[in-house]
Amino acid sequence: MEIYGSAVTDRLDRGRGMFKRRYYRQHCTQEQYGYTKDLSAIHDDLASIFILDNTPNAYRHFKNNAIPITSWFCDPKDTYLLDLLPFLDALRFTSDYTLMNQNFFISKFSTLSSQVLSIYRSEEKWKSFRKAFEAFYMLCLIIFGAILGISLYYRTTNIWMLKNLGDGFLHRSEGLRPIILGAFYRMVGEQNVNGNYAVIQYLAHNFDKQKLYCISQRPNSEDDNSFVINEALIQRIHDGKRGTNDICSWSGHLAECEIASTNLNYITLSTSSDVNEIKNGMKIELETPVIRSPKEPLVVCIAPMYIYTEWQIMLTGIESWLALGATKIIIPIQSASNTVMNILKKYERDQKVILRYWPKWPVMNDVNPNGLVLSRGIEESHVNCLHFAKPFADLIAFSDIDDILMPVNPLNAKIGYNLELIHSLFKEHPQAGTLLFEHRDTQLQLPNDKSNDKTLNNFNFNFLHNSKVKQSCGVWRMKTRVIVNASRVDTVNMHESGINRFGYVQVRLPCRQAHFYHLRHSYRNLPTQTSDSINMSTVVSILNNQFKHRLSTTLSTISNLPISESRLDTFRAYDECVKAVNNEHFTLKVSRCMTPSACFAKLPSGNMNCTAASTDYSFARINSDFISAPGTLKFIPSNDCDAPIPKYTSGNSYYLP
Asked: Residue 338: which residues within 8 A CB-CB, separation 6 or more?
């Protein structure tokens, strides 16, 4: 009867879902002996159906499908049907129930059902245990959280211990931190596309993925929609060089981007293209180009000058370049003795020399870039000088103050010799953007004058007669110096070419055709048995005659002033430091980048007054990135003959870069 049968099936099927369809008294067929259950009305395939009943008349027509059970007479301990349920559930996996022997099932059911029932009960027990464990776990978690919260609130737990535990889950997040070194307009004559472009030089970590946007505003427009935002094309200055390790982990980069006009007061640099971030960007003034027509035939960019500069070597370099064809010499200054500065300022007033500032870079919150840039930024300085000189220079030579291009046989020297030589070489190699010249170490002995009344009036270049040997020209690769056609290149390295433009290439010249003389006062003698003899008499005559004229013109006001002796002991210490770092490379374990900032510079003995380049820095924070830029540049007195570390004096964040 459905009235009580539905309640029973609900009780049996609770949480199992075993009963798919339900049939009651009204679904049976009434016959002479009572109600018969017609299985064919349920399913056509009788092999997949069995009937469980305690009345034989109920299944009299389907005996092969029947499993008889005993009747239940209000016995609370009777669990026969419940115990049978797991067994019946297992029959779902039987393809044809009718092929089974009923008597076998009936006789063996007690054993089989008990096995199935034990498995079923063990599963139920495991489910109960898991539910109990989950409840216990949640309870423990709640108690632990409550105790931890109370402990933190009442400060009963050591908070530093908790922080130490949390350190294992922390990692450092560091954004881009470019340091701007210079900003220049791209000359129209160097472009092969329309538009206005700017070139930004900056210093950054080698392994950072560089990104920079130039934001400029159209002239005479205050509309927010007048901003021009362009992503810069970025190239590392010495791409591929020292890029596989982090010994010298900072280096120079060039970023070129399109701007609104060539007549801008400033542009804004950002690491984000979001126009809403413009207010957070760094405003940079583009350097006003120096335009000259005709251009200077040959400009020389000298490596930055530090406390190691010896005034006699400096005069030799300047006068030799000027005599042999250079029309302008550009010298960046980081620090120098007052004697050197006084001489250079006279050459600058006579428009023979251009002095540029080359201060140190600011120290970040966790790193000092000054000790991580090769050779204190000689390559960065050369590239800065290149883009400064591009508007007014035709040819540019890059060299140290003691590296000079002279004839292979110095007896062939004459006024303007270098200019004629370089023009002939570029004519011979029309696709050359860069000429690479080997440089040969020459034994240089400075004057052995111990007098205390040294003046420029009693100085001459006769000491060059003692330079009698130089390294031979052999067929082997040697370090080179670089001379470029200014419009054909964008970067140069210390001893090789950098980025050549428009398909121009570098050409390496054999030393028998031309080479530099490295007048290195290195306190080491060159081996005479493998060296070539040289005669510097022609060079000495040219330089002495030219310097005699200089004393009556350019240097007349300081020609009789006493000159302070250069302190070569600091140079000697630096030379030994560089040798030590060089030797470390052969062990494959290098302790520092090869740069003067990584060497200990002894304070000069005696009363040696010095001058140094100085500036302050500002920074702009854009999200997690920082852009740093120098402020006003100036020369200041220096007590230790070294440039000071710049300080940050303004920024838009409480964080330091």
From this structure: 564, 609, 610, 611
CB 461 within 8 A of CB 536: no
Both structure tokens of 156: 């009963």
> Cβ of 629: how many Cβ atoms within 10 Å?
20
* Phi, psi dihedrals of residue 646, rounded to the nearest 5°: -65, 155
> Can you read off the two tokens belonging to residue 87?
């067994």
The token pair at 111 is 């054993």
pLDDT of residue 414: 95
The pLDDT value given to residue 108: 44
Residue 116 pLDDT:
52
How far apart CA 87 and CA 114 sit, in angstroms, is 9
The angle, 0 to 180 degrees and rounded to 10, between the axes of the packed helices 2-12 and 80-90 is 70
Greater model confidence, 96 or 235: 235
Task: Pull the structure tokens for residue 543.
Answer: 């330089």
3 state DSSP class of 224: helix
Spatial CB neighbours of 19, under 8 Å, sequence gap ≥ 6:
9, 12, 13
- For residue 251, CA distances in Å to 106, 386, 526, 545 come to 90, 17, 33, 43
Residue type (1 letter), 232? A
Joined together, the tokens standing for residue 609 give: 């007054």
E-only strand ranges, 448-585: 469-471, 480-485, 505-508, 515-518, 531-533
CA trace torsion 118, 119, 124, 127 (10° rounding): 140
Does residue 418 sit in helix, strand or coil? helix
Q: Give 514's DSSP letter.
A: -
The DSSP code sequence of 484-505 is EEGGGBS-B-SSSB--B-TT-E
Structure tokens, 568: 């070569």
Residue 381 φ/ψ, nearest 5 degrees: -65, -40
Sign for the pseudo-dihedral over CA of 602, 603, 606, 612: positive
- Phi and psi (nearest 5°) for 318? -65, -50
pLDDT, mean of residues 220-240? 78
Instruction: Identify the bridge partners of residue 300 per DSSP, sorted by sequence position.
Output: 329, 397
**The two structure tokens encoding residue 123:** 């599963």
Place of tokens 């306190």: 523
DSSP letter string over 579-608? HHHHHHHTTT---S-SSGGGSPPPPPSSS-
Rounded CA-CA distance 288/439 in Å is 35
Residue with tokens 């570390």: 645
Q: How far apart are CA 434 and CA 405, in angstroms?
A: 15
The answer to whether the CB of 506 falls within 8 A of the CB of 558 is: no
pLDDT of residue 603: 67
Amino acid in the structure at residue 294: P
| Pairwise pLDDT comparison (134 vs 474), residue with the higher score | 134
Start-to-end CA span in the chain (Å): 86
The pLDDT score that the predictor gives to residue 112 is 47
CB of 510 closer than 8 Å to CB of 437: no
Residue where the block lists tokens 């110096």: 481
CA distance 369 to 273: 27
The one-letter amino acid code at 585 reads H
Omega before 657 within 30 of 0, i.e. cis? no
pLDDT average, residue stretch 540-553: 95
- What CATH topology corresponds to 179-284? Immunoglobulin-like (2.60.40)
> Given its phi and psi angles, is residue 135 left (phi above 0), alpha (psi -120 to 50 degrees) or beta?
alpha
How does pLDDT run across 306-344, given as a tens digit for each residue? Answer: 876 788 989 999 999 999 999 999 999 999 888 899 999
Find the radius of gyration of the CA atoms of the chain: 45
Amino acid at 329: I
What is the C-alpha separation between 629 and 623, in angstroms, rounded?
17
